Each structure stands twice: as structure tokens, then as C-alpha cells.
Amino acid sequence: MKLYTILSMCALALASCTGNGNKATDTTKAAGDDTTKEATLNAPAQNMEYCFLRTEGTSNQDTTAVHLVVNANKVTGEMKWLPKEKDARKGTLEGTMSGNDIKAVWTFMQEGAKDTMAVAFQLSSQQLGQKPFKVTKNGRQETDGAAGYTIMYKLDNCSAFKTVAKPAL
């Protein structure tokens, strides 16, 4: 308790010594500090593992799950698109992170064929945004670079990526 009291008094003393008496400047600085604190709270942690989940469809029967491992500016992970009555896409993600923006290549299997697609995400501490896909003239899907991050995923406990151990017989 004494240590806490001493630290509090030192912080107060330092705060009072650094003031310059200009209240307008102090108010502006405080407002800027709040913005910085909010940005810091919403910023994703580095060297961290994240899982996100999105369900959609008439009965939320279609699921997309994203597992990301952020290590400095390198991002790896998995992505699973699991529609109820269509062929699934399951594969790996590999890319880079700049600020909160992630540019990655999704290498996946669908209908027994291997394919790749560029994907774009925006990561915060509690959710993941993705740029939607568009269909090209040749019928392939690609990320719509001009679109915003409109596909939103909720933070998850990685349930879609956990494998259930089978009991030994």
C-alpha cells in the first residue's frame, strides 16, 4: 500500500511540474491523449493469435472462420468457408500486416482442386473486417480492392479450428 501511495504522489508531482499554465494547450493535449488511448485500446496486439467467426444465411447456417497468427508484420493462419449446401473452401493464409491492414494470399482446396486468392482484412482487438469478393469477367472471384471492409467477423475462441480427439479403442 505504501508503494502505491508513493507512486501516486510521484505521478502527481511530475504531472504538476510538466504543465505550462496554458489551459487551451492542456485541453487540446488531453483530447489528443484520449484519441491515442482509444486507438491503442482498439489496436491489435502484436505477436498474438486471433480467431474470428462469421455466420450468415437464412438460419445462420453458412460459416466462415479465420484464424490469424500475427508476428510483427508477418501474418499466417487458416481460413475456412463452410456453406451449408455448397462445396467448402479450406486453406492457409500467408501475408503481411501494415498498421491494422492485412494483405494475404489464401491457398485453399475446393472440389479437390487447389486454388489461391488475394484477401484483404482490417484487424482490431475485437473484430475483423474483410473486403468483399467480386466476380471477374472470366467467372473467378477476387477481392474488390475499391470496396471497404464490409464483411465483419466476431472474435471467437477458435472453436472452428479445434480438433476433437477421438477416444482410443
UniProtKB/TrEMBL annotation:
Entry keyword Signal: yes
Keywords, in A-Z order: Signal
Signal peptide positions (record): 1-23
Name of the protein in its database record: Lipoprotein
